[in-house]
What we know:
The complex is a heterodimer of chains A (802) and B (364). Chain A is of the alpha+beta class and 802 residues long. Among the domains of chain A are: 2-44; 60-296, Penicillin-binding protein 2a (Domain 2) (Alpha-Beta Complex), CATH 3.90.1310; 690-737, no CATH class; 746-801, 2-Layer Sandwich (Trypsin Inhibitor V, Chain A). Helix content of chain A is 35%, strand content 23%. In chain A, strand 25 and strand 26 (627-634) form a beta hairpin. Chains A and B meet through helix 2, helix 3 and strand 4 of A and helix 6, helix 8, helix 9, helix 10 and helix 11 of B.
Amino acid sequence: MNRKKRAQREIGPVSKQKKILSAMVLLSVCLIIIIGNLFYIQIINSTGKYARQVDQLVEEVPIKASRGDIYDKNNNILAKDSSASAVNVIPFEVIDPEKLATTLSSKLGLDRAEVVKQISVLENDIVEVKTGISNDQTATVLSHNFPGVTVEDNTLYFKPLYITNPAGVAAALSSDLQGSYDDYYAKAIQKESQPVLIKGKVDNALAQEIKDAEAILDKNGKVQDNNGIEILEDYRRYYTNGNFASYILGFTGIDHTGLYGVESTYNDVLKGDDGVVYFQKDAKGNQIPSQTKILKEPTQGKDIVLTIDSNIQLITEKALSQAAAQWKTKSVTAIVMEAKTGDIVAMASKPDYNLNDPFTLDPTFAATHAEDLTGKTPAEQLSLMYKNPAVSFIYEPGSTFKAITGSAALEEGVVTPDTIVYDPGFIQVEDAVIQCATGPHWEETVSDAIAYSCNPGLVQIIERLNPDVFYQYVYNFGLGAKTGIELDGEESGIINRLSTANGAINQVDYATFSFGQGLAATPIQMVSALNAIVNNGYYVNPSIISEVTKGAENESLKQVISKETSLAMREIMRKVVGYDAEMTFLSAGYSIGGKTGTAEKFINGEYSNTKYVTSFYCFAPIEDPKYSVLVVLDEPSTGAYGSTSAAPTAISIMKQVLNYNSADTNLSQDNSQKLQKGVITIPDLVGQKKDLAASILHEKGIRYSFDRGQGGDTVLSQSLPVNSVYDVMTEVVLSLGTPASDTATTVIVPELKGLSIQSANEILIGLGLNLKMTGNGFAASQTPAPTTVVDKGSDVTVTFTP
Amino acid sequence: MNTGKIDRPFLMALLMLAGIGVIMVFSASMYESTMSGEKGYALFLKQLLFVIIGVIVMAFMSTVDYRKYKRYYAIGLAISVFLLIIVLIPGIGVKVNDARRWLDFKVTTFQPSELAKVAGILYFCTVLSKKPEILKQPSPLFLYCILPMGVICGLTAIEPSLSAALAIAMGMIGVLFFAGIRFKAFLPYLGLGLMAVIGLMIAEPWRLDRFNVFLGKGGYDYQITQSLLAFGTGGFFGRGLGNGKQKFLFLPELQNDFIFANIGEEFGFIGCLLVLALFAFVIWRGFKIAQKAPDTFSYLYTSSVMLLLAFQVLVNIGVASAIIPVTGIALPFISAGGTSMVVIFAMMGPILNISRKVDLSKKR
């Protein structure tokens, strides 16, 4: 009984087996489903998964190569990179777009509407919207053909940037699939989650100020967010002397590519080559150190050395500023060339522009070029300002060209310097009468005809030459073709050869060609051509890049005229100076020869009798020329001639150049103003960071100290003026502080007393103020008073009295 | 019949699974540990420690005659219920992510629901082996079986830990099934249980959300998408140990509930098959032991523990590979865990002891 009862309680083996078997069958079915599903998700449906993982994991970031520095021939630094900030916004993280747009547009001086557009740009990448979309639903969703809506692996994705009709998408999808209209709509207009560059090359201090202004605090008063602002490291180009050698150096654009000058022509050398680094980042965006690979090392940009000598450049720029002020020129250009090598030791034009602020129209340029600028967009106006007159300004060379006519005739032997020509004050060529501006000279030698700049004399000289031969000389002297100097925007000039109906040369045009009319050349072409005449006939290519950078060139020298002809021409050009009392006086004590030129500008098909281009070419020493200097004045005030306007400037530059390099001078001692070789000039450091200022001063060998009075690390002022010559016994004191931002809206009214109307106006425009004037003469009183703080754009009323 | 030796293939398979677990936890947790300021091997050491403790506990229990546990069936249930109640009391139960599931014993934390799994099975096995007839009588069935089950599952569910409640219920239902309950008698209670689950879902909307997401009616499930990326990039052979990318915080809880995704990524389809084969072997072997078990208690215990083990494996892998909605059940022997690891090994102890009484080599 007991045993039987026990047996009843026990579950029989068959029953056990049945239950276990059924459990195992059930579990096996589950196992097969699991395995089948794994096979599906791991093998069949795995395409695209790898790409999506890479998408969320990997980031390729360029490593910026640093841009090379630019040095002058004495290794003075002219341009280098300095630290700056790039202000970016992550639109997805923007909480208060109105405030952000206002801050950015006001502090960075940007167009508000443009900023609003940038900070609200839509997501460019995929946004995951919904998983578990069945195949039927996929077909329905895709049937709408909405741009920017895709289904992949049963997951619905949006690309908001491509969605043209977010409301339509949201409406359609919320009815096709489950889910609310609002959710779909929000995803369809989701903002970009990557940083969008608002402005690069921004002052570090200003960038921080913007970030702080947009800080959003949490309840504990900690900064929780910066309204989507992200400040990234950037750099910008710093030009040690601002308005200095502007046209030679040029500047770089937003993407750090050289836009003008050697920054542009030597961009490939300077820029180096960015590297690429391959980062893996985790879900929170942290870089994973062990998974970082440098795919390509950056190649740092190379430094370049120019042929420019900063001291001669400075001498030249000062002389030009003087000439510009005295002759109220539209533009004035000078080139100083080493006669034997073609190296350009100085090249300058006034007005120019500030390389550290190249996107602001220079006020002087705006004034002198007002006629050209009217009706142009700001961008067009700026691009006019950037044109380098030394290589792009084409003008009729006028009488300076007579040296070329003379050289060709002497070299061909059709005349000698002593050949007699006859000038009754005019010459008849076919139906044209050509006047002599300086004669009549009656009987004169060829050399005097050139020295007196006698047009009828030159006509008689050129008429002895076969036009084919003559034109060959013109081309041999490099006219009508680019010189190939390493600068941007060079023009070829115009060499016309007009012929009559029967194919013969037009005799009138040919005759006027002799004294430099009917052709156009650039200053660089003229200085190179004339330099060939004095350089024993050898034409050397002008160059702005030192051999240190480009390597020694094996150029075969091109001899255009013989040494004897060159000697004869130099003697003739000595006479040019000798026959003119003022030039004789100015060059007293120096062995300087030259040739003047004055030409009416050819405007709208006729010669203007009010607008001139005057120029003077000179070289020294005559016995063995070392330097050639050409000065060209565009539209000087009435009464200017080559001999009165350009010549004094050119001779002044030449004398200083010779003095500066006293080893090269061939002159009496009493004229040497002791200018030492390698003289050091003070750079413009205001607004720079302390470290950069220190490194520049260190490099220039200038002793310095900091005045930390106000705290901060930006140079607010410097004790020695910019471009002044550094005395090794002194040191420059830099006052540090925190700058008022560039875009401050208030300015301090300056003291204007005693200034002319033009100077007062220039100063006020520079500060962003408007001049309201009464009276004439010099400033006597003003409202508001000096040192008053006013808003930018305010009027300052100034009373002028004679 | 009594060979006196434990079933070595069963034990070897268990140890292999635990070994794979230790390695995979290391691989999965290394980055996250480093990022949170700990040593990269912190979790690996912890896992190793608990595996060793678990193995020691299992070894010890395999030497204790399984029949002795019958004595503790009531007290075990009572302690479980007691702990499940006090864990709900704020101040005693530790609250993590809005759920009070843990007791803090300073040295380690402890989940009463883990103990309840064992206690529930032990209680049912003892009661049903002593008095199998209660299965056939409605009132004792309710009093001795359904009520206790309802209490511990209910207490677990309101922690809230629905998945643990389901696991406890699964273990206990397993006992009922293997004891031969008639489907008709159990059906009403099954219906009641389902209604309770639905009720909880409505009460806690996030559960419904998860379910909706699974059915394609909700939004976007980040975890599942990332888990599928892990499986998809693993492909057939996997990327190799330690080369997974989803561990870089893309897949949260990778070393816990989503450890199988890491296996899928680093060892591919092949690695997944191997792990599944080991589990299948353990369960198959367990059922064989159950079938040959010397008495009803050992039969019920072994088979229901195997069913619970299978349930946990299937649910965990089902979640990771997007077959079923997201719910938090660890992968036994493999997922990182402290008490759960010790408990699962402890549950294997009596089975090893039972295997001493069984000769599997004997052909029928």
